[in-house]
Amino acid sequence: DSGVTQTPKHLITATGQRVTLRCSPRSGDLSVYWYQQSLDQGLQFLIQYYNGEERAKGNILERFSAQQFPDLHSELNLSSLELGDSALYFCASSAAPGNGYTFGSGTRLTVV
Amino acid sequence: GEDVEQSLFLSVREGDSSVINCTYTDSSSTYLYWYKQEPGAGLQLLTYIFSNMDMKQDQRLTVLLNKKDKHLSLRIADTQTGDSAIYFCAETRRRDAGNMLTFGGGTRLMVKP
Fold first, then answer.
1. Distance (Å, rounded) from C-alpha A43 to C-alpha A35?
2. CB contact A48 to B (< 8 Å)
3. What is the mean pLDDT of chain A?
4. Shortest CA distance to A13 belongs to which of A91, A106, A78?
5. Residue-wise over B77-102: b if at least 16 C-beta within 10 A, else e?
6. Among residues of chain A, what percentage have pLDDT more than 70?
7. How far, in Å, CA of B76 to CA of B73, rounded?
8. What is the pLDDT of residue B1?
9. CA dihedral in degrees (A93, A98, A99, A102; nearest 10)?
10. pLDDT tens digits, A58-88
11. Which stretches of chain B drop beneath a pLDDT of 50?
């Protein structure tokens, strides 16, 4: 157990639907990062939150959004889902750069 | 990402050393990391090196960094079948406000008994 908890582990949904992925960071970590891992794009950074505030944005589609709550857990919302959104979505947390980034076990999203 | 590149595949025999290579382009790299991903699993941090270091050793793992050539390598001594996995190098860069990780495409290591 890495200390970063992601739920659900698997999600199957239809095109056009909306889903919410949840991440609880390791205790004491203020930063949460979301990554998408797909076969054709590799591991892509989506978005980062630090202590409730958006800190950096990567290749995140407008159909996707995220937030970090006062208890530091984060949610990634994916809407108007397309087949190409099928991927593994990872959350990572960190206390500070150089300490390493701890990853959760991921949510596997399948859009049918 | 295209900023960090790795070869796709490496096959070694059990007991041999494995060397996985990575090149990066950004001169503002601060830390460089190696992660391991086993099938169906998340990313496990193996080791990291600060950009002003040349080498770091941790048990069977040796990381070498050539900052002039922007080349990073991970050597696994006495490779075991349990080392079969995908290995990702990643960097954090001073120019990125969020200190996010930028990953290479991963190298699949296959260890033959």
1. 6
2. yes
3. 93
4. A78
5. eebeeebbbbbbbbbbbeebebbbbb
6. 96
7. 10
8. 44
9. 30
10. 989 999 999 999 999 999 999 999 999 999 9
11. 1
pLDDT bucket at A99, cuts 50 / 70 / 90:
low
The residue of chain B nearest to residue A89, with distances taken between CA atoms, is B42
Amino acid identity, position A110: T
Which of B10, B4, B13, B5 lies closest to B86 in space, CA to CA?
A: B10
Per-residue model confidence (pLDDT) at position A9: 96
Q: Which residues in chain A are closer than 8 Å to B99, comparing Cβ atoms?
A: 31, 94, 97
Q: How far apart are CA A33 and CA A58, in angstroms?
A: 10
Does A51 lie at the interface with B, CB-CB under 8 angstroms? no
Give the whole-angstrom CA distance, residue A94 versus residue A50: 10
> Which chain B positions have a beta carbon within 8 Å of A48's beta carbon?
98, 100
Mean pLDDT for A41-46 is 90
pLDDT of residue B41: 85
Contact A33 B100 (CB under 8 A): yes
B-side interface with A, Cβ within 8 Å?
1, 30-31, 33, 35, 41-45, 48, 50, 88, 92, 96-106
Q: How far is the C-alpha of B74 from the C-alpha of B89, rounded, in Å? A: 9
Are B106 and A42 a contacting pair at CB < 8 A? yes
Is A33 touching B (CB cutoff 8 A)?
yes
